[in-house]
Write a structure and sequence with these properties.
Pfam families: SET, zf-MYND. Keywords: Metal-binding, Methyltransferase, S-adenosyl-L-methionine, Transferase, Zinc, Zinc-finger. By secondary structure, the chain is α+β, with helices and mostly antiparallel strands. It contains 25 helices and 16 strands. Among the domains are: 49 residues, no CATH class; 150 residues, Serine Threonine Protein Phosphatase 5, Tetratricopeptide repeat; 176 residues, no CATH class; 78 residues, no CATH class.
């Protein structure tokens, strides 16, 4: 059975709605049609009601085993490295490079590097003759990066090419280019050290006297530049990050079209605005976790929280990137989801990229080594399929058996304690948190239960065919027995629901030339253990933006001590989806709950329909002291004046985001403390906040 046949079966199976029937599925090899008989739906309903994933998997296993003969052989073809294709792409890059089309040349060289055969990451000694196409790819890409004045990127590519090059003259030329880069970034001491090496290399090269003399003159000039530079001291860098150059309405004033590929920002995530919570370190001390039978786990404020305060920072337990364009290399790091214009390849496949050697080593060890043989097929199963697969392969089979045995003993203890390890800490990188994610398995549509079960069944076959999960103690692959298959398959069903219910769409902000937010563009998906503990509200008190695969949550309003802190699930904020019926339907279809937040219970009007009057929340506060009334009125008038000024300037070329973010937060704090909601002016402030705040995370300049 190939993957296409599986999906044909799955789609027909959904339409059937589990009535007794016979489904015909044609194998990819077209030997003969195979009939798969499905039992009555009552049995499957009972599995779902009981949350019995093991019996559900056995049920599927028996259906397939009796009629298809397990193990199934999925028709998975792994894209391989191709030296001929790599050389072809490099030659195409050379042609456009000669025509000064630097961005197009860079893209060709990126693809060339992805396609070139690559040494294993564990190799300490590399046969340079074997990886000539990769060495040339890095060398040629460094030339483009040098022309674009991306010197740090250029230096990294030069080091990679030097380590792989077999030609001494090529190594010399690359070292010489590296000296130019080091001088450009004012690293004169390093440049001097390399110049000494270059002089020694030059003596050993078999060159004509005139060529050798020419190189000697160049080295002398570089040495003089180093001496002059060191004597003058640091000077202001000429080349800035292109993202930082976007300061006016006409971005072309600052950089050419070739530079646009570098006009992005991968900012370092901010720190919490308070000490970490000792039990849940991803939260600040301003937050605490509680539990009730009707709500489950939920987050409350332990003190008053101001608008804009960073209350949670967490790296995803599992995340996956999506390509920006079909049939083009990813420009997002597979491990951290940072944007990378000059990426590193996977050592085995041409399908994923990494932003640097550290991310590649971590990503390879954590998940990609085990998924690489089946990655192309895995992509077809979507983010919850990839997430479930990666959740499993993060541990060995034996480790999973030990952990799950322990977790099953803890299934009846308080949900507050289930997510805590032996040190009573909720670890965002622990499988425990993934195992105990809340899900809607028992309340989901029966078709979804069956669909997730079938996907888990296919993922189990992928684990077998990868030959990298079911391994003996000596590292040799083995065919698992029914017990092992059922154990893993049942976990995959569980994770399909846990991850599918709790995943976050990871996005990046794309900006216009006038520095304004255009749209939030999806770039991946992630599961965050601590962030999943927040409950939903259509008028959230917290909002998340992303720094790669790190989620940063800020308060969107004044949150009194003891109040619950909410996020908005699935972009169902009241401001974005004013119609209560639509919001509730989205939430019910996705999460199987009826929303009873204030905007839904009170059926708040659309922001545009709200009367722009201000009603004070606590009238007793005004009655008690006339000075309070005067002070409040003065503060309100001042804020209104400043907001009106901001409305005029927000679309201007030199709009200063940081200063106005402070004003927006100050104004929101005032409204949340004193004014009755909903209020049209408060809605406008929220809109400004949602416009400005995402700019602090991952951003990319986009022409429109």
């Amino acid at each position: 059975m190939d993957l296409l046949a599986y999906f044909m079966f799955y789609n027909i199976y959904q339409i059937s709605r589990l009535h007794p029937h016979v489904i015909t599925m044609e194998h990819a090899n077209a030997i003969s049609p195979t009939e798969i008989h499905l039992e009555s739906k009552e049995e499957v309903y009972q599995y779902q009601k009981d949350g019995n994933t093991e019996d559900m998997f056995k049920y599927l296993y028996n259906q397939f085993e009796s009629q298809v003969k397990l193990p199934l052989k999925l028709n998975i073809s792994k894209p391989c490295k191709d030296e001929l294709l790599s050389n072809k792409l490099r030659e195409e890059g050379n042609l456009v490079y000669k025509r000064k089309k630097l961005q197009e040349a860079l893209e060709k060289y990126n693809k060339c590097i992805l396609s070139a055969p690559h040494p294993k990451l564990s190799c300490t000694k590399v046969d340079t003759n074997e990886y000539n196409s990769l060495a040339k790819g890095y060398a040629n890409r460094s030339a483009v990066l040098f022309q674009l004045q991306e010197y740090e990127m250029c230096i990294r590519d030069l080091d990679r090419s030097i380590n792989l090059s077999s030609s001494k003259i090529t190594q010399f030329k690359l070292e010489e280019r590296k000296v130019k880069c080091l001088i450009a970034v004012e690293r004169y001491k390093e440049a001097q050290d390399i110049l000494k090496t270059c002089k020694l290399m030059l003596k050993s090269l078999q060159l004509e006297n005139k060529d050798k003399e020419s190189y000697e003159n160049e080295l002398s000039i570089f040495l003089d530049q180093c001496v002059i530079g060191m004597n003058k001291g640091k000077r202001k860098n000429k080349k800035k990050n292109c993202y930082e150059e976007i300061k006016c309405a006409d971005a072309s004033t600052y950089f050419s079209s070739d530079d646009v590929i570098f006009a992005y920002n991968n900012p370092t995530p901010p720190s919490l605005d308070d000490e970490p919570n000792p039990t849940i370190p991803a939260f600040s001390r301003a937050l605490n976790l509680q539990y009730s039978a009707d709500q489950g786990r939920y987050v409350v404020a332990t003190r008053d929280i101001k608008p804009g305060e960073v209350i949670a920072v967490e790296k995803a337990y599992t995340s996956s990137a999506i390509p920006e364009e079909p049939n083009s290399p990813f420009s997002l790091c597979t491990f951290c989801l940072a944007r990378c214009a000059a990426p590193l390849p996977c050592p085995e496949c041409p399908e994923v990229v990494f932003c640097n050697e550290e991310c590649r080593a971590k990503g390879w060890d954590k998940f990609h080594m085990k998924e690489c043989p089946v990655y192309s097929a895995l992509l077809e199963l979507g983010h919850s399929g990839i997430g479930a697969y990666r959740a499993i392969i993060g541990q060995s089979l034996d480790e999973l058996k030990v952990l799950v045995t322990q977790f099953k003993r803890e299934e009846h203890i308080s949900p507050l304690k289930q997510i805590l390890n032996e040190n009573l800490v909720c670890d965002s990188e622990s499988y425990r948190g993934i195992y105990f994610l809340e899900d809607n398995m028992k309340t989901a549509d029966i078709l979804k239960f069956n669909g997730n079960s079938l996907t888990a069944f296919t993922l189990t076959q992928m684990l077998i065919q990868s030959n990298r999960f079911f391994l003996t103690e000596t590292g040799d692959p083995f065919v698992p027995d029914v017990e092992d298959l059922t154990f893993i398959g049942s976990l995959l069903i569980r994770h399909q629901f846990g991850l599918g219910t709790n995943f976050f769409g990871i996005s990046e902000i794309h900006l216009e030339h006038n520095n304004l937010f255009i749209r939030e563009v999806p770039k991946g998906y992630g599961t965050f253990i601590a962030e999943s503990l927040f409950r939903h509200s259509c008028d959230p008190s917290g909002i998340i933006n992303f720094h790669g695969n790190v989620a940063v949550c800020r308060a969107t309003r004044f949150i009194p001590s003891g109040s619950q802190v909410h996020l908005s699930y699935h972009n169902t904020m009241y401001l974005l989806v004013p119609d209560r019926a639509i919001r509730r339907k989205i939430l019910w279809d996705t999460y199987s709950f009826m929303c009873n937040c204030d905007p839904c219970v009170c059926d708040w009007k659309r922001p545009s329909e709200t009367v722009p009057t201000l009603r004070v929340r606590d009238t007793q506060y005004l009655r008690n002291d006339i000075d309070n009334s005067k002070s409040l009125n003065l503060e309100l008038n001042t804020l209104v004046t400043r907001i009106q000024m901001m409305q005029k300037k927000i679309s201007s070329p030199n709009f200063d985001i940081n200063s106005y973010l402070e004003l927006v937060l100050e104004s929101m704090d005032f409204f949340d403390r004193f004014i009755v909601l909903p209020n049209s002016m408060r809605s406008s402030l929220c809109a400004y906040f949602f416009l400005i705040f995402p700019r602090t995370g991952s951003c990319k300049w986009a022409s429109v």
